[in-house]
Amino acid sequence: MSTPLYHLPGSMQAPVPALDEAPALRSVADVLALSQVEEVMDELGRDLIGLAPVKTRIRDIAALLVIDKLRAAHGLTAQSPSLHMCFTGNPGTGKTTVAMRMAQILHRLGYIRKGHLVAVTRDDLVGQYIGHTAPKTREVLKKAMGGVLFIDEAYYLYRPENERDYGQEAIEILLQVMENHRDDLVVILAGYGDRMDTFFQSNPGLSSRIAHHLAFPDYAVDELLHIGEGMLTQQQYRFGVGAREAFDDYLQRRLQQPHFANARSVRNALDRARLRQATRLFADRDKAWSRDELCTIEVQDIRASRLFAVNTSE
Ligand SMILES: Nc1ncnc2c1ncn2[C@@H]1O[C@H](COP(=O)(O)OP(=O)(O)OP(=O)(O)O)[C@@H](O)[C@H]1O
Ligand SMILES: [Mg+2]
């Protein structure tokens, strides 16, 4: 398999809330208290830098679902709401991360039984030979039932240049399941915005089953810097004097380079900075390094990047 299927770590999964058996759900506060969904929303607000439009949309969706619960308590809701979504944005803008949080929110509100996330790409769904696609797709769907199926770069499922591409078969099965199992599986299609638009134009059946479109903007430099600091803190590192400014400078340069991938590029750059820090400390075998020194990324660990060697006058 080209990409690993992965699941939310067990510790992140809350016990299934007994929302549907709750005696009297009268207020928004009742639903929030019982589902504990607000914890996840607060975490999302706190842990993820920027993404204001995405966070607003998630709050709107959560509001819709909470009110749906209150309506159901009055016997008003007939059909489970359509929750399939589309996340568009450039690489590293937080789509996978937000999808995991979304799975938790849907789980806590009782819309999916298990709340796990299964992430796949075309190769996990589509076979190479005749007869291989249907079992492959069904196997993935089976794993995803009760949770979220996240299909990255979903447009690769559709290859109009191949007259009989097996991707079409996977799409047809997906369509059926999205319709018939909407109370037990949420599908999130992800990818670049423009390609997704073209894909939806050629596959109106899929497009019409997607209820929520969330656009993930590129991060501004100050947001990337903020994200970087958060990553360092998580790993018990920090910037030494002047290193933050050096990293700011690095990011401004990196943004201009090809294959810039937002927060993912930040993560990769910091991984390399840690490597250089380690090499720097390793060079002095006899010195007893202090806790502080072991935690500090210095200016030179950033400035040694080859990006600073590029002749900018060119
Ligand atoms: N807003 C954010 N705040 C903090 N960290 C973030 C944020 N967005 C992304 N990250 C981190 O950046 C990395 C890449 O994010 P993620 O994998 O969610 O992006 P993606 O849009 O799915 O990217 P790709 O298209 O490359 O799969 C992850 O390590 C994630 O934790
Ligand atoms: Mg991703």
Number of helices: 14
Q: Output the radius of gyration.
A: 23 Å
Q: pLDDT below 50 for ≥5 consecutive residues: which ranges?
A: 1-12
- Quote the distance from N terminus to C terminus: 43 Å
What gross morphology would you assign?
Answer: globular
Largest sheet: 5 strands, parallel
Say which molecules are bound, naming each kind only once: adenosine-5'-triphosphate, magnesium ion
Give the overall pLDDT as a whole number.
89
Query: What is the N-to-C order of secondary-structure elements (H for helix, E for strand)?
Result: HHHEHEHHEHEHHEHEHHHEH
Describe the protein.
The protein has helices spanning 28-35, 37-47, 52-73, 95-108, 122-125, 133-144, 167-180, 193-202, 204-207, 221-234, 243-256, 262-282, 291-295, 299-303, and strands at 85-89, 117-120, 148-152, 186-191, 212-216, 238-239, 296-297. It is α/β, with parallel strands linked by helices. Strand 3, helix 7 (167-180) and strand 4 form a beta-alpha-beta unit. The longest helix has 22 residues, at 52-73. It is globular. Mean pLDDT is 89; it is low at 1-12. Magnesium ion binds at residues 95-96, 152.
Overview in brief:
This protein has 314 residues and is α/β, with parallel strands linked by helices. 50% of the residues lie in helices and 9% in strands.
Task: Indicate the topology.
Blueprint (H helix, E strand, L loop, with lengths): L27 H8 L1 H11 L4 H22 L11 E5 L5 H14 L8 E4 L1 H4 L7 H12 L3 E5 L14 H14 L5 E6 L1 H10 L1 H4 L4 E5 L4 H14 L3 E2 L3 H14 L5 H21 L8 H5 E2 L1 H5 L11
Parallel strand pairs: 1-4, 1-5, 2-3, 3-4, 6-7
Helix pairs in contact: 2-4, 6-7, 10-11, 10-12
The structure holds adenosine-5'-triphosphate (ATP) and magnesium ion.
Adenosine-5'-triphosphate binds next to helix 4, helix 10 and helix 12.
